Amino acid sequence: MTDAHDPAEPSRVVEVERKYDVDAGTPLPDWHGLPGVDAVSEGEVRELDARYLDTADASLSRSGVALRRRTGGPDAGWHIKGPREGDGRLEMGWPLGDDDSVPQAILDTLARWTSDELSPLARIENRRTAYLLSGPRGVIAEFVDDHVRATDLRQHVQREWREWELELGPAAPTEAAAREAFFAAAEEAISAAGARAAASDSKLARALGF
Predict the structure, then answer these.
(1) How would you classify residue 34: left for phi > 0, otherwise alpha for psi between -120 and 50, otherwise beta?
(2) What residues make up the domain containing 88?
């Protein structure tokens, strides 16, 4: 009988999200009138601490893949973020384990991209406040307000910034046109608050100066 928490069997979720750069003093968006959303939760504060690893020649990053071990928040654990496909990105997750050594199941999964030795790449500490945007059928999206401190562990450079993310939830539209319509309406509120499209594709990219 297979244990439901077998670390060899990762969780899998396709993330569909948008990212935005925002100044330190920018107020949160006003979600009133956002189609389909009839409730916004109170903010939930999460203290996240993620350590990223890669090979010496950054073969994972060059393949569009990220490996991290993150503590804090509801999805603490090991994560592999795969290359972006369409408007989403597959994220696989495993439990934290007893120490910070990379589990064999993760090494096996990474073998399609590399089997070289992994070493520390970056640390990203994030004070996140998360809000659930819900409708009659459940959570349409999660909006997060992130205050980030990142350290490039190879270049010994530290960077700090604030950003927002809007990720579709289980009750989000499934058709591409409906998704785009939702994001367009949400981005009106986000832009009105003073945010702008993110200059970097990911927190890791920004941590490394890209």
Answers:
(1) beta
(2) 11-207
